[in-house]
Amino acid sequence: MKNWKIIGLLFLIVLSGCSTKTADTLEEDYTKIGILLSDTGLGDGSFNDSAFRGLEKARDELGILFTYEEAPDGNFEQALEILVKQENDLVIGLGFTAQEPLEAVAKQYPEQEFVLIDSVSALENITSITFKEHEGSFLVGLVAAMVSDTKTFGFIGGVDAPLIHKFEVGFQEGVNYILPDATLLSEYAGDFGNASLGKSIAEKQIAEGAGFIYPAAGFTGVGSIQAAQDKQILSAGVDSDQFFVAEKAVVTSMLKNIDVAVYDIIKELVEKGSISESAYEFGLADGGVGLAPIRVKSLTSEQKALYDEAVEKIKSGEIVVSTTK
């Protein structure tokens, strides 16, 4: 009986060793992705959450492993170095504010492959992904002009930067496509993470006559959307479908399909072993941007036809939406 116990114990030890080795081997076989989220982190209902959905889809469909870091203290370089030292096959920096620290870390680790989302880098080991936010914002403006009872509109930007200008300019041109004499009230919060500030800016614009608010301001924008509902005017969401934020106010949202871009770039890495291009730009024609379903208000058949026509003209290049003020 003792002999059988000894044999059984040896068998368990050997089996345990094999299992450990198999787990290590399996982990080595996975493509590993690390991402540094932008300033406001998970739960913003917008930019970061969209990227996270792309990672989850890649995990479920492509079998990758992923990890993420947040840097609420602003120390992006430290967070990026953590991701590099975890031996991730790809490290993603989310948001244009990550460019400087990402480039600093990329210079220290020239063999590491990086992706920068929302800005363009010239470094060889960084692949850049940008979007034509101005095209999607044009459609928001178009719809806003069709459904609003006033000719005054509000735009709230997170920070006064070229990327956010694309949202503002696109929105204004979309409004003016329908209402050439419309007024746009524009203000930049200087913060992507302050909902109460977004609320106060929106309330000020509403007091000045704005009947529709469009924020491109992350969590700050959530406050402005909620203010629109409180004051019984209309609004649009941004980056993700934000209808749930204020279901009586959000007519539509400008979808910036970061989840699609993140998934596609990981899929290319998994299937080909590398990323082929140094830069990608996603717009209306290739599904990079678009609109969420139109709710709260309905378009007439004539308005719907005009909307569809504008979409096709943007895709074909007949309508060229500006990118700068």
Helix content: 40-55%
Strand content: 15-25%
Which stretches are low in confidence, meaning pLDDT under 50 for 5 or more residues running? 1-25
Helix and strand string, N-terminal first? HEHEHEHEEHEHEHEHEEHEEH
Q: CATH superfamily of the largest domain, please?
A: Response regulator
**Record field, number of beta strands:** 12
Large-scale geometry: globular
CATH architecture of the largest domain: 3-Layer(aba) Sandwich
Strands of the widest sheet, in order across it, are 2-1-3-4-5-11
Amino- and carboxy-terminal Cα gap: 86 Å
CATH classification, class level of the largest domain: Alpha Beta
CATH third-tier fold name of the largest domain:
Rossmann fold
- As a whole number of angstroms, the C-alpha radius of gyration is 23 Å
Largest sheet, strands/sense/barrel? 6 strands, parallel
Question: Given the helix and strand composition, which structural class is it?
Answer: alpha/beta
Average pLDDT number: 90
Keywords: Cell membrane, Lipoprotein, Membrane, Signal
Protein name: BMP family ABC transporter substrate-binding protein
Pfam family, one: Bmp
Subcellular location: Cell membrane
